[in-house]
Structures are given as C-alpha cells and as structure tokens.
Amino acid sequence: MTTSPDAPRRPLTLKDVSEASGVSEMTVSRVLRNRGDVSEATRDRVIAAAKELGYVPNKIAGALASQRVNLVAVIIPSLSNLVFPEVMTGISQVLDDTPLQPVVGVTQYKPEKEEDVLYEMLSWRPSGVIIAGLEHTEPARAMLAAAGVPVVEIMDTDGEPVDAMVGISHRRAGREMAKAIVAQGYRRIGFLGTGMPLDHRARKRFEGFTEALAKAGVEIADREFYSGGSALAKGREMTEAMLNRTPDLDFLYYSNDMIGAGGLLYCLEKGIDVPGKLGLAGFNRVELLDGLPRRLATMDACRLEIGRAAARIIADRSSDPEIPGGQRDILTPTIDPGDTLYRSRPRV
Amino acid sequence: MTTSPDAPRRPLTLKDVSEASGVSEMTVSRVLRNRGDVSEATRDRVIAAAKELGYVPNKIAGALASQRVNLVAVIIPSLSNLVFPEVMTGISQVLDDTPLQPVVGVTQYKPEKEEDVLYEMLSWRPSGVIIAGLEHTEPARAMLAAAGVPVVEIMDTDGEPVDAMVGISHRRAGREMAKAIVAQGYRRIGFLGTGMPLDHRARKRFEGFTEALAKAGVEIADREFYSGGSALAKGREMTEAMLNRTPDLDFLYYSNDMIGAGGLLYCLEKGIDVPGKLGLAGFNRVELLDGLPRRLATMDACRLEIGRAAARIIADRSSDPEIPGGQRDILTPTIDPGDTLYRSRPRV
DNA sequence: ATGAAAGCGCTAACAT
DNA sequence: ATGTTAGCGCTTTCAT
Asked: Which of residues 119-178 of B touch A (CB under 8 A)?
C-alpha cells in the first residue's frame, strides 16, 4: 500500500475502489466478501486496488444493509477477577473458528451498570449475548427476552434463565464442600468471604454450605467478610483475626482461592499444623497459585468449559436459526483436596 | 414496559415509536437524543411510548447517518496478564465521564493477529485507537496512520509512535533496576524471564538491564526463560534450577512479579537468607501479591496512569478536533525496594 | 417546536 | 460473470 502525497481525510468508500479498479461497486463488494462468482482477473484487479488505496470496509454500512452483525456481546462483572479472563479465553477459542467476534462489557457487579451496558450493546444489534449470572434488573431481563437473538446466561445455574444457561450450581458446590469437610471430622468451621452482597454466586455457595452443615448438625462457628484491597493480604489478616477470636476452629472455608492462599501462607508461617489441626479450603481453582508451598483444597468452577459451551450455543444457533433455544448445560465441579483437606493421606 | 402478547421478531424502529406516540420520527429521534427543542408534553409522550414498547435504538443506523461512533478501540496482547485489566480500569475511569466507550481486542502477542484485530476494529470506524506497544506490522502502522482518528500507543516509549504515545521507558526501567542492584554490592546476577520473543517490553527491560550492568563491569552470570504454566510454579522451578546450576549467584532479577514471587517463596522455604545472601527483584508491582511473607522488590509500571492518560488524549481530541496530535507522555516508574533489595536496613 | 426530504455506505434482489 | 435498483434505520438539513 502506497501513501498518496496528501492522505484524504475522508475515509475511502467502495466507490473509490470501484473507480480505481474500473469495476462496479457491486462487484467490488462481492470480491471483498468472497461472495458470488467473480472472475479471477477482476478479483485480482479489485484486490490490488483495495490494497493500493488502503481501503478498510465500513462495517456500519454493511451491517445496516445486510441486517447482520458478527458481534457477540459478552457481559461480565469484572476483568480483574481472574475468573472472567478465563471464561473469555474459552469464548474466544470457540468463536475464533467462526465469523463471530466477542465484545466485552464490564458491569462492576452493579445491576444498573449492567442494565446500561446491556442497552448499549443491544443497540449495536449483536448476533448473541453471553451474560454472567441469572440475576438482572427487570428491564434488563425484558431487554434480553426481547433481543431476538440467542442469550446465554453463564456461571450460575441456580435459577431460571431467560433463554439458555451454562454453568455450575453454586449452591451445590457449597453443599459438596461442606459434606467433604464434615466427612473429614471437622466440626468447628469458620467462613471467610467477600462482603459483596451483589455477588450472587458467592452468596449461593455460602447458603449451600450452611445448609449442608445444618443437615450434619453443624453450625458455622465464626465468619468474616472483607472488601477491597489485595486478596492475599486480606486473607492473611482475616485469618489472623478469626483465629485470635475463635482459637478452637478446626476448619476455614474461604469464598475464593486468593484469600484462601493468604490464609494458608499465614498458617504455614505460624507453624500451624495444616490440615492436622486446621483444615483449609477455597473456591475456584486458580492456576496462578500452583507454586504455593502447599496446595489449597479447592473446587474447579469449569470456567474455560463454561465459556466454550456458551460460545458453542451462540455459534450454532446463529448459523442455524432453526435450532431452538433454552439450552441448559449444568457442569459438575469437582473437589480438589489439594494438601489441606484430607487429614489422613493414603499410605504409600 | 409491558410485554405484548406475542413479541415481534422484528426489532422495533423509530417508526414504531413514532406511530405509537403520534409524533414524527424526527421528533422522536430528537427526544431520544436530547437534541433540539422539544416541548415537555411531546417529550413525555415519546419517552412513555418508547419505554412501553421496549424500544432500543439502532446505533448502526445512527452511526451511519451521523458519521459518528462513540467507540474507542483498545488493542492489547492479553487479558490474563493482570497488567492489562489495570490499564483498562484507567481507561474506563476516564471514558466513563464521556460519551465514549472502550471496546477491547486481544492479540495474544501475535503481530498478524494484531493486524486482523485492528482491521476489524477500524472497520467499525471508532473515534480513537489505544494500542499496546510501538511495534506493529507494516500494514498495521499504515492502517493506524490512515485511520483519521486519534491513535495512542501505550505502555512503551522506546520508539517512534504513529501519533501519540503514553508509557514508560522499559529500557530505562531495566537500567535503573540494574543500577540499584549494583549499588547494593550484588555482583553475581541471574536473570529469569519469559521466553516470549514478541514481548518487546520485556526484551527492552532486559537490554537496558544488561547495558547498565555492563557499564558497571558486571555481566549476567546466568539466565533462564520459561513459557506457559503457572507463573508462581515456574518461578519456583526456575529458581531452583538456576541456584543448583550456579550456586554462587547473589541476585535474581525476574521479568515479572509473579515468577519473582515463586522464587521468593522457594528461597524462604529453603531458608536462604534474603536479601543478605541473595537479593531478589521483579517488575510490575502486583497488588495481588501484597500478602506474601516478604515484599518482593519491584517497579511500578504506572498502568492505571497510562490508561487514564491515553483515554484523556482520545477524549480531548475527539471532542475538539482542533487539538493537534503527537502527544508524548513519558511516565517515570519508581523502584519499590520491598524487603528483598536493600541488604542493610535503616536501624530503628 | 415540529416536519419532510435526502442520503450515510453498503448489500439483497433482481436484471442482464 | 457483472451491473442496476432499492432500501437498511437513522440523522442532517432545510422548511414551516
């Protein structure tokens, strides 16, 4: 591509390419989209002209004319959570083999912000929507229902989706972990979590957790919540505070691996016998933490798989509108006991 | 908003709102955009009708007609890097006070992918482009130059930008750290980094580092590179391998805080005297790590500030096209010695 | 304060 | 294999 003496401020149009190549706009359009029959010769001339001029098609006009937009709206609470980049990776893996492209919107766990972001994204008429969680404002649900494109609600399956859903049951995840903990004989259990009332998944895990404990006749012995700051540091501080307040605890359940790791480091430093005297578990297997001195017990939330499955649904339904909606893909998270849950290990 | 008995598959248009409210399309458009004079009465009727129908404007048509798109293309190598979400936060902070909206594209550190993503995004005619790094393919540079909108290249300032640039000099960052290390009397220095030949910023830091060491008559005594896997675990493994191979090293410089933290944990576990016998330093202050038993020496790369400054430039220039381009904002990263760089601490 | 007409840059549908 | 025509849904501009 050569730069002409003075670059035009006006963006180039099909017409420019048409004139430069001596071919009709329509044919240029066909070449640029690999559509319909075009002779080798004209194709070459058009491509040469487009390249020479540095033409970049105007998708806005294209989308308006064709009523098709190859964008998939992905709406998530945060990018710094580690969890969501992984979901994005799964989505991208699948969409990379299609003409579709993800576009991310971040809500910061705020329902009104979610509503705004959704409205904004729907106004671009995307081919599909992937949105985290099942809890939305009334207007947001209405918009999703009226969008006229596939909608996949991800991460959580404890509730009724507008259309399709892919995720895990966080209530069940909490229950399973509670059962595993009780099965190991722990009885004096503390809970440490985020203070975010709007993190519904964390809330549901907690509910499932206490529910299963209750069934075993156990009650949470102490609890503490945090917000803001470095999760690792917070985990450390909270653990110290809780153990000072309630020294007879024999298990700490953390609502995520980062604060759990902070707690683990604290315990190791203090020479506390883990998991002999004190068991620990987190949630959301964070690969990043694999280099810790000891592996924290945790549960994999299947993030990559959730992203892939959601994208699959959008891709399939958007290429074949005959496919009905309402898919339910409930994945099963499994406990990874790491080194901090099982008191007795199998003898070698 | 009420849901009509059978929801229409066809998306609603201005015309629908116009008919429902008995007002011309033009006036509806004015109301919905808060433009021009509209009487209180008609405004209310229009808003009521739009809400009742659940009308979502079509930005594609709007953008085509007005030749204005309130999107800012943000092109970054990765979302899992921790660094980039922080840059995004800075960008959002500033754009939230404007009509502009960021749209993210991810390149996975691949030049061709970057070219594709850029082409794709430019075809939506964004109001500005924020792109990581100064190294791009020839076509990518040409596209940026011809885009006709503000372009800000961020993170790195060692090179010539197409238009504006905001970032730090990674070469200088490497030099500064080398000087600080030598000043502490360390002489047998090992380097541990990513094996990514396309991470130009890591490469420049390394070059600056070796250059400043050379000036002090010191040469890198050992080096090791990794790719893939958990950074913490890799840092641990690499550190072990290097110390076994070259036991007389007295300093380890890591190309990022995550692998540095892995190394730090390893050293503490082995009872190595840090920083007495072995000093450590990373790069890119990661808040997430604040809860480690000891604070790793590092350097803040000013990510939040870079995002904010870049967004500022786009916002300003896009609201006032008279403002000329070519801004250069070179921020100064500072060394945070943490607990692993200074051998002698000030006595209390 | 409101409306009518023209057209943004492209593509669907129909010629040829 | 290529060209022509008529919009896509909105906003700009110019009337009233």
From this structure: 119-120, 122-125, 139, 142-143, 145-146, 148
User: What are the boundaries of each domain within chain B?
Assistant: 14-33+55-168+304-330, 170-300
Digit-coded pLDDT (tens) for B78-137 = 988 889 999 999 999 999 999 999 999 999 999 999 999 999 999 999 999 999 999 999
- Partners of residue B271 in chain A, C-beta under 8 Å: none
The three state secondary structure string of A69-83 is: CCEEEEEECCCCCCH
pLDDT tens for B2-36 read 444 455 568 999 999 999 999 999 999 999 999 98
Question: Does B322 reach chain A within 8 Å, measured CB to CB?
Answer: no
Tell me the C-alpha to C-alpha distance, in Å, between residue B24 and each of B16, B37, B240. Answer: 10, 14, 75
- Indicate the CATH number of A170-300 among 3.30.9.30, 3.40.50.2300, 1.20.120.740, 3.90.550.10: 3.40.50.2300
Q: Cα separation of B183 and B232, whole Å?
A: 28
User: How many residues comprise chain B?
Assistant: 348
Alpha carbon B104 to its chain's center: 10
For B214-247, the pLDDT digits (tens) are 999 999 999 999 988 888 999 999 999 999 999 9
Q: What is the pTM of this model?
A: 0.94
Q: What is the CATH number of domain B14-33+55-168+304-330?
A: 3.40.50.2300
Asked if the Cβ–Cβ distance from A146 to B54 is below 8 Å, we say yes
Inter-chain touch A232–B146, beta carbons under 8 Å? no
Are B14-33+55-168+304-330 and B170-300 equal in CATH topology? yes
Q: What is the dihedral of CA A23, A26, A27, A32, to 10 degrees?
A: 120
Helix, strand or coil, per DSSP, at residue B308: helix
- Reduced to 3 states (helix: H, G, I; strand: E, B; else coil), residue A220 is strand
Does the nearest atom of strand D lie within 7 Å of A107's Cβ? no
What are the E-state strand segments in chain A?
A: 71-76, 101-106, 128-132, 151-156, 164-168, 189-194, 220-226, 251-254, 279-281, 298-299, 328-330, 335-336
Cα dihedral: B338, B341, B346, B348 (round 10): 50
